[in-house]
Specification:
Largest sheet of chain A: 7 strands, mixed
Largest interface: A-B, 36 and 38 residues
Number of strands of chain A: 12
Strand order of the largest sheet of chain B: 1-2
Order of helices and strands of chain B: EEHHH
Strand content of chain A: 15-25%
Strand order of the largest sheet of chain A: 5-6-7-4-3-9-10
Helix content of chain A: 25-40%
Radius of gyration of chain B: 18 Å
Low-confidence stretches of chain B: none
Radius of gyration of chain A: 22 Å
Strand content of chain B: 5-15%
Oligomer: heterodimer
Shape of chain A: globular
Distance between the termini of chain A: 52 Å
Mean pLDDT of chain B: 95
Chain lengths: ~290, ~80
Amino acid sequence: MHIFAEAGLPDGWAQMVLPADLELATRLVTDARVGFLSFIGSSKVGWMLRSKLHPGTRCALEHGGAAPVIVSHDADLEMALPRIARGAFFHAGQACVSVQRVFCHNSVVADVATRLADMGSQMNIGNPLLMTTDVGPLIGHSEVGRVDQWVHEAAQQGAELISGGRKRSESCYENTVLLNPPVDTSVMRNEVFGPVVCVCGYDDLDTAIAISNDLPFSFQAAVFTRDIDTAMHCYRHLDGTAIMVNENSLFRIDGMPFAGARTSGLGVGGIPYTMQDMQTEKMMVWRSDALN
Amino acid sequence: MSQRIEVRAPYDRAVVGAVDAATASDVERALSAAYALFRDRSQWLPKQQRIAILLRAAEIVASRRDAIARQAAHEGG
């Protein structure tokens, strides 16, 4: 706000309002004078707010997901693994498109799990103000507890804990790799929003895709393969608003369309797309004898 | 009298700062001011002015890049 004022924006054109509770925040966004709500946050709050918007108020929602990555039997693992590790662990897995579920062909699953675990274990976890830190804290202490509980629930239900699985401090959690967590565990069904990646083996690609698609999310997904037909097949059948080929699901640049679909969001973000979403077209019709 | 919201660093819970929580009358004041500007086209900023403001804001952000990045990392983890 200070920067905008310094840049010459007059009063009233951009205002910051920080309601202390959800009730007042809801009153703000559901007011009849609001033309557009742009929301980034949890699916639960986003859809709730949308359901209460005043008639005439439009919105864009951006929530999260449990981003899937397919690793085909022919993937270039040297290229893929550092990318998948970054996608899983950077920002401690707290991006809307952080890699969460990695479906690997059974011929490479053990290798992927082990090497992802190694890469994760070598990252420096800690103080985000230090240039040497690779992965910072979770957003709150209670999140550390929740992530830990989900990891151990998965382990108790049969997942193999390959690395991590414990707190590093009150605020930081170790980069964690779980191998073959059952599909109905929290880590496989809900957005982890933590440094936890589920590595799951498959024999049949379409079965993996079906499992991947069996969640209400749809955001960015990825496939690592050297085969064009495999890439196209995944593009066609994997739920997502964007399918990255040989890049992780976290990839984003300002100018590209960035959107959640199904419960993951509404509308399309990215500079030209957001501008489009926020505008309404106004048509003018001229009728004049002079135009005959 | 509005309450203060303390902003704490996720890493070590150090207090980064504090901001005023908005009251119901702050919310009303903000909505009313924004809506009044929206409804009065004579007050709308011409395109060239908006472009100039955005470019200037970008320059200011660029000149304070490190401090802003540090602040964001401190506050956000």
